[in-house]
User: Which sequence fits this backbone?
């Protein structure tokens, strides 16, 4: 049992598990942002094209011959929403909801694509700056090495000593 908890602790504290948890949290927050973009910004413009209705409210009644009047709706022409149709015992083809879901998907896809492009460009810029800094540091080190006086080799030291002795003898 102790090994189980040791293994569980090792599993939970690995870096990629924590990265995944952060990704899920950020993804949830990003999902809320995109949902708000769709519901609060884009859908109102679309509703202007559909006469004030959002796409999700558009539907077609499949079985108008099964109409059953209710207290509020006495004629099939009074049905304005899917809830009205269902209250009257009618089946509906909710094609507007499908279109709205496709629009949501496309907006989410574009949003994620743009976010990834921005992230990858920022990462590329950081990596480029890092490489340039490494090149500059290497060039500075090479220049520093070139500016240092060259230490004579052992052979050169011996030859210089012999020349000095030879000069004294002469």
Assistant:
């Amino acid at each position: 049992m102790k090994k189980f908890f040791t293994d569980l602790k090792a599993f939970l504290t690995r870096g990629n598990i924590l990265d995944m948890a952060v990704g899920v949290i950020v993804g949830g927050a990003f999902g809320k942002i995109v949902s708000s973009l769709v519901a609060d910004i884009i859908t109102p413009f679309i509703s202007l094209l559909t006469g004030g209705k959002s796409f999700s409210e558009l539907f077609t009644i499949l079985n108008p011959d099964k109409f059953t009047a209710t207290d509020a709706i006495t004629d099939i022409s009074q049905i304005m929403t899917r809830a009205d149709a269902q209250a009257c015992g009618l089946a509906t083809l909710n094609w507007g909801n499908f279109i709205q879901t496709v629009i949501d998907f496309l907006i989410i896809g574009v949003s994620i694509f743009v976010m990834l492009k921005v992230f990858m460009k920022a990462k590329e810029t950081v990596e480029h700056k890092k490489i340039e800094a490494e090149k500059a540091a290497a060039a500075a080190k090479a220049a520093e090495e070139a500016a240092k006086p060259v230490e004579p080799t052992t052979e050169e030291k011996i030859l210089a000593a012999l020349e000095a002795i030879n000069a004294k003898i002469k």
Notes: Residues 102 and 150 are 72 Å apart (CA to CA). The two ends are 92 Å apart (CA to CA). The mean pLDDT is 84. The helical segments are 2-12, 15-49, 82-87, 95-147, 154-169.
